[in-house]
Amino acid sequence: MEASKPKYYAGKRETFAVAPRVWGLKTIFVNLFFIANPDGSWVLVDAGVPGSTAKIRRAADALFGDESRPKAILLTHGHFDHIGAVKDLAQEWDVPVYAHPMELPYLTGLSSYPPPDSSVGGGGMAYMAFAYPKKPINIRNHIELLPGDGSVPGLEGWRWLHTPGHTAGHVSFFREEDRVLVLGDAFTTRDAESAIAVMTEKREVHGPPSYFTPDWAAAHRSVEILADLNPEVAASGHGMPMVGHELRRQLDDLVKNFWVVAVPNKGRYVHEPAITDERGVVSVPPPVGNSVPKIVAIAGAVALVGMALSVLGKRSSDKSARRKSKRPYSHNRVASGLHPTVDPDHDDPNGHTNNYP
Ligand SMILES: [Zn+2]
Ligand SMILES: [Zn+2]
């Protein structure tokens, strides 16, 4: 099968062409990518929202032939909307999943991500953020570390770059030959906080999704690194790909005006980042009080339910001891040994009631 020509499944345009041998697939509101080598072998970059396993498999079959398997799955980062099908697909295809070492705690059940900041952003996406799952998955049996030399397992002519900020172990992928950039959520090509922009697919360079970005200084440096690559094509996790001069102009503008246009005016992580290490979250700044009155009604109701559930859940003396700790925002630190803070086999079905204040 000729890998460079996209085939659309049953006449329905499920995948979209990004560049030669690169295709995107949108799952609800997040993109994942198929990247092929000249010899037809291929990798999957990210794995969509939960519930997209069949859709991804179908798109892979349409592109590369029935029963085709990738050489690897590569993760830009481990947010829930980029790893929805990763466990199923890694098992089914029996392939390794590559990620950056700093992303590992969130992929091996060791730590939850820093809590999202629902006080920032201006639209429905941010308001909904409190309901997003934050529990780490555990794909310990499949996970491998990206090689230190920048090469990309399973792909020729590509290299990976560490682009932290949105998450600590966030990476982007770059093909030097024609300057194609697959960049996860390091920046977006539409306004992720605006529900209207999400629906209308307007292409415009924006910062990373702010409700999930806990280190703005790092995010800024990362955008700078990507702009310095002078990309010809940029394919983001959110929004349609952008190309050429317009892409580079808007990207340069984003670098120049990052603290005005991308960083929220106020918010939990604006002045202080979440501190993480290779074991996960070490500390996070306190939540912003009385932030957005509009969300109080919804979030308040959810918080009440959450509080009731967490009261019910506070059986262990361990937890009450933690509440009295002098490090109220450091409860996720692993003091000694590598004990998971979350038992992935006994996930709280009310996933938004996690340990964070
Ligand atoms: Zn993300
Ligand atoms: Zn995302």
Task: Give the gist of this structure.
The protein is built from nine helices and 14 strands. The protein has helices at residues 53-64, 86-93, 124-127, 195-200, 216-228, 244-256, 258-261, 293-313, 317-323; strands spanning 15-19, 22-27, 30-36, 42-45, 72-74, 97-99, 143-145, 158-162, 171-175, 180-182, 233-235, 242-243, 275-277, 280-283. Helix 1 (53-64) links the parallel strand 4 and strand 5.
Strand content: 15-25%
Total domain units: 1
CATH homologous superfamily identity: Ribonuclease Z/Hydroxyacylglutathione hydrolase-like
What do we call the CATH topology?
A: Metallo-beta-lactamase, Chain A
Give the CATH architecture: 4-Layer Sandwich
Can you tell me the CATH class? Alpha Beta
Bound molecules: zinc ion
The unreliable regions are 1-12, 290-357
**Principal-axis shape:** globular
Instruction: Assign a percent range to the helix content.
Output: 10-25%
The SSE string, one letter per element, is: EEEEHEHEHEEEEHHEEHHEEHH
What characterizes the major β-sheet?
Answer: 7 strands, mixed
Multimerization status: single chain
